[in-house]
Protein 1
Amino acid sequence: MHIAILQFEMHINGAMSLKDKRRVVRSIKDHLHKHHMVSVAEVAALDTWNLAILGIVACNRSGAYLQQVMDNIVAKLRTHPEARLGECSLEIVSADMLKGDADESGEPLWSEAERREAMEEAAAESGESSEPTGEA
């Protein structure tokens, strides 16, 4: 599995208020999610009325496919009628490269007992048993 992370700036020249900015940002987010099936969020500069910093995340089994999707998104953002694309940063990582449940030294974040206890609590909250029933 591969994960693509795109962070970009949109300069909203016509915005005179946060309300104007939010209208443009909502339009961008809705369009990207609908047409590219990616997760989109405004991640910084929330109170700056003429600048939006957004992040996009997508995952797929193919890194090449993700590269193509992100290239298409960047091309569309360059032609947005109400905002100008600023700085853009793309990173595609393989899930194999992620550390998982370990801290900076490589030690597990949870002991096996803590992991088991958390699973039992989650099962109890959902009304399921975490123990095998032996039924087939």
Protein 2
Amino acid sequence: MCYSVGAPRGRPAFPVLLELASFPKAASPEAFGNLLESYVPLLIYVLIVLGLVGTVASLSFVLGPSKPTKTKLAPYESGIIPETPAMRRLSVRFYLTAMLFIIFDVEAVFFYPWAVLMRQLKWFGLIEMFVFMGVLLVALAYIWRNGGFDWD
């Protein structure tokens, strides 16, 4: 590994350069067995969770209502008798707005790691994030200009 002068002892500086000679050529069967043994607690946890989910689903099926009537199946909306069917078609604009929200929300998640690593990334990270924000603003302006947010 390549360590920088002034880095804390035992911790590599950013970026870490790895030498190809430091990788093992082949894993021994003993190392593979140890790796599988380390996943045993995770396997036990998964089995417990699946068993619990199966138990709860079975209990809800057994103990749940067994005689659905027209009154029980009718939608209840705060005591008001519904005038339209509960299953109605939604406008494509609704789905478009939902997709735009998800896209911009997911892209906003990239700001958190950037803020955490800001000092390590220095000018490169700052310039790259401004480019990223510029692309987001161009996309937002394009959507706004083409009426992606209009409900009419």
